[in-house]
Design goal:
single chain; 344 residues; alpha/beta; seven-stranded mixed beta sheet; three-stranded antiparallel beta sheet
């Protein structure tokens, strides 16, 4: 039987751990992380804190847990948080902040997804017996739409929030992609937040895990909240070993994914009935629409799967393809050929 490669464009969470990661897992020195004596976890946390410019860091199972820990740690019951209308926290986390932290959402809806200083000014609640307290500003960079927020716009929102004494949390799931696009250190981005989350399993090839970074007092409180949520782990150094490779090596190859995303975009726009904004391809994500009248959107994903290509279904004709370490240019050429057969 011939082993046919499956090209998976659903997300950069689907990456396989590298062979080096598998060997690192095998030989990792471990302890009990709840007792804070797993040396590999401690090393990962120290490195994550250093790379983001914070005092401390916490290894957690997922980005969603890290986001919810930040909200839980900063807010009190009944508070309201300011966040983007299309942000991951608002759309893709099962309403967890309302359930776990008992906070309300004060969403900002802008076409580009960027929260401005003026947005913050308008969203902050004044002192009134009828209103909830504003407890937190949640920013994103990169955004869920795959674009990167310029530093001056982050500074604008940050400065406005600080005028009201608000803490600022950054959902930086793809923080290193944003830094690569802006050609800056991650520390230049995290200057405009009080804490940050980034994923090790989105584009950095770790099988599991995200990092929550902030000052010592914040991380101490977040660690206890992690235990509350059932996120206290034991000999988790076997996973942290992968995270170290993610930070030391995989962050340095993200420019390859970005280049491949632009290559994919340039191929797709050659096809008829494709609507795609190349200027919006900032990182490793390509959004496009298929505008062919009567196009069978329901059958599109199934047809690609029959040809060894995995994608998510289109939302109103809008598709998202994500490239990563397991997708190369030959793969992109193959995908182009298959779609070309459909649209011609």
């Amino acid at each position: 039987m011939i082993d046919i490669k499956t090209i998976d464009l659903r997300s950069d969470t689907v990456t396989q751990p590298t062979e080096e990661m598998r060997q690192a897992m095998f030989s990792a020195i471990v302890g009990d992380d709840v007792y804070e004596d797993d040396p590999t976890v401690l090393k990962l946390q120290e490195k994550a804190a250093f790379m983001t410019g914070f005092e401390d860091a916490l290894f957690v199972p997922s980005g969603t847990m890290a986001n919810q820990l930040a909200i839980m740690t900063y807010t009190k019951r009944g508070d309201e948080i300011i966040l983007g209308y299309d942000s991951h926290i608002a759309v893709h986390e099962v309403g967890a902040a309302a359930v776990l932290s008992n906070v309300g959402y004060r969403t900002v809806k802008n076409a580009d997804g960027v929260i401005t200083g003026r947005d913050v000014e308008e969203a902050v609640r004044v002192s009134d017996i009828h209103y909830p307290d504003t407890g937190l500003l949640c920013l994103e960079n990169a955004l869920s739409n795959g674009t990167v927020v310029p530093l001056e716009k982050m500074e604008d929102a940050y400065t406005a929030a600080k005028r009201y004494g608000l803490p600022i949390f950054l959902d930086g799931a793809r923080l290193f992609n944003a830094a690569e696009y802006l050609k800056v250190s991650p520390k230049e981005i995290t200057r405009y937040c009080d804490s940050v989350m980034f994923c090790l399993s989105k584009g950095l090839c770790s099988p599991v895990g995200s990092m929550l970074c902030g000052d010592t007092a914040f991380i101490k409180k977040a660690r206890k909240n992690r235990k509350l949520l059932g996120g206290g782990m034991r000999q988790v150094g076997v996973l942290a070993a992968c995270g170290l490779i993610s930070l030391e090596k995989m962050t340095k190859r993200l420019h390859i994914d970005h280049g491949n995303a632009l290559y994919l975009a340039d191929k797709l726009v050659e096809l008829p009935h494709i609507s795609l904004d190349r200027e919006a391809v900032h990182i490793n994500i390509v959004f496009f629409k298929i505008t062919q009248p009567g196009f069978d959107h329901d059958g599109f994903a199934a047809y690609l799967l029959d040809n060894g290509i995995k994608i998510n279904g289109g939302d109103g004709g809008l598709y998202r393809f994500v490239v990563h370490n397991d997708v190369n240019r030959d793969d992109i050429d193959y995908v182009f050929g298959v779609i070309n057969n459909i649209l011609h």
